[in-house]
Amino acid sequence: MNNAIPATMRAARLREIDGAVRLVVDEVDVPTPGPGEVLIRVRACGLNQVDLLTRDGKTPADVPLPHISGTEVAGDVAAVGEGVRKWRGGERVVVDPVLSCGECAFCRVGRDNMCLRGRIYGVQTHGGYAEYAIAPAAQLLPVPDHMDHSTAAAVAVTGPTAWHMLRRRADVRVGEDVLVIAAGAGIGVLAVQIARLAGARVIATAGSPDKMSRAVDLGADHVVNHRDPEWADQVRTWTGGRGVDLVFEHVGAATWEGSLHAMARGGRLVTSGGHSGFTVSLDLWHLFVKEHTVIGSFAGSRQDLVDVLGLVAHGEIKPVVQDTVGLDGIEGAQRLLEDRGVFGKLLLDPTRQIGGSRR
Ligand code: ZN
Fold first, then answer.
1. Does the structure show a pLDDT above 60 at 230?
2. Residue 151 Cα, ligand 1 centroid: separation in angstroms?
3. Quick one: 243 exposed, middle or buried, by C-beta within 10 A (0-12, 13-18, 19+)?
4. What is the pLDDT of residue 62?
5. How many CA atoms are closer than 13 Å to the CA of 109, on its beta-carbon side?
6. For 76, phi and psi rounded to 5 degrees?
7. Interval between CA 257 and ligand 1 midpoint (Å)
8. Cβ neighbour number for residue 142 with a 10 Å cutoff
9. Cystine design at 129: which of 9, 12, 163, 204 (Cβ 3.0–4.6 Å)?
10. Residue 353 has pLDDT above 90, yes or no
11. CA of 111 relative to ligand 1 center, distance in Å
């Protein structure tokens, strides 16, 4: 072990699921990496809707308590466990958050996001809401040269998720009309850019005038406020009454009906989330008469993360980071995320104390 590693660290921990007290910043022991594991000094950790689902007991997965959440982690290798040859102290790494076995039928064909023994980092394991975090060495990728930790953390989940949805699952094509629901969300921001990069025309929804204008800045051709009850009709109007070829969905119950209404005959809808509600209705008559395709998409594969890091490194797409907080600011930042007050990403920098100074 490196002498510079302290015995204890600060960590924002969830002591109970769906409890009155949410996150508490504790002084806890710095964990020791086991065989095949790496200790990372966390430099940036993105906040994600899944953190809120974990907090509120809405993930089906077992969550170890007290829990350190945080799925989107970038940092520096601080120490390595037994048998780890690939990584050395000081190397800059980002965690692929879909923990996969590398051996099952899905892993063998590169669909490791579907791993039969898959787990989500920072949900079923401890994650990055702390000064140090443990991750399996096999789940790490190098942060590209000239990319800062914040950028890597900001795309670690949103990037492969949006890329997997649009490119691998829905196969977005040149000239298509793509509707991006909630373009101000972490994945929405990247979806607008990925669809544009593919040569599609982008229609976006956003929940406030400010977010609407920022979606235009990102490259959306038209933006409608999804709080307007007629928003899906407006989308149809912009497509000459035809509807869009592809809907990028990740909100769920709150936008589902409008998303289906906005689809063209022969259109596709790809979905990767449903934090506003997972149960929706589907009119089979419309589904088969209009030959609609509804596509599920889960996170991203290792290759998706590699591809996205390359695109970001080359300036083809870039995340939007609204703010960075210290450990004491996480609870407030989660509230902001919950209240839809975020455009792009909120990040944690655990080295930052109250007032923004570094430790
Ligand atoms: Zn597997």
1. yes
2. 28
3. buried
4. 83
5. 5
6. -115, 140
7. 35
8. 14
9. 12
10. no
11. 8
In the reported structure, the alpha carbon of residue 161 is separated from the centroid of ligand 1 by a whole-number distance in angstroms of 18
Q: Which amino acid is at 77?
A: V
What is the band of 359 on the pLDDT scale with cuts at 50, 70, 90?
A: very low
Of the given ranges (58-62, 188-192, 273-277), which has the lowest mean pLDDT?
A: 58-62
User: Could you tell me the distance, in angstroms and rounded to a whole number, from the CA of residue 169 to the centre of ligand 1?
Assistant: 19
- What average pLDDT does this structure show over 10-14? 96
Instruction: Count other C-beta atoms under 10 Å from residue 307's C-beta.
Output: 18
Q: Which helix (H) or strand (E) holds 293?
A: strand 293-296
Judged against a pLDDT cut of 90, whether residue 2 lies above it is answered with: no
pLDDT tens profile 233-254: 999 999 999 999 999 999 999 9
Structure tokens at 262: 């906005």
Alpha carbon of 108 to ligand 1 centroid (Å): 7
Give the distance (Å) from ligand 1 centre to CA of residue 103: 5
Q: How far is the CA of 114 from the centre of ligand 1 (A)?
A: 7
Cα(301) to centroid(ligand 1), Å:
11
Q: How far is the CA of 107 from the centre of ligand 1 (A)?
A: 4
- Rg of the chain over Cα atoms, rounded to whole angstroms, equals 20
| First-to-final CA distance of the chain | 21
Give the chain's length: 359
- For the whole prediction, is pTM greater than 0.90? yes
102 CA to middle of ligand 1, Å? 5
Whole-angstrom distance, CA of residue 220 vs CA of residue 205: 9
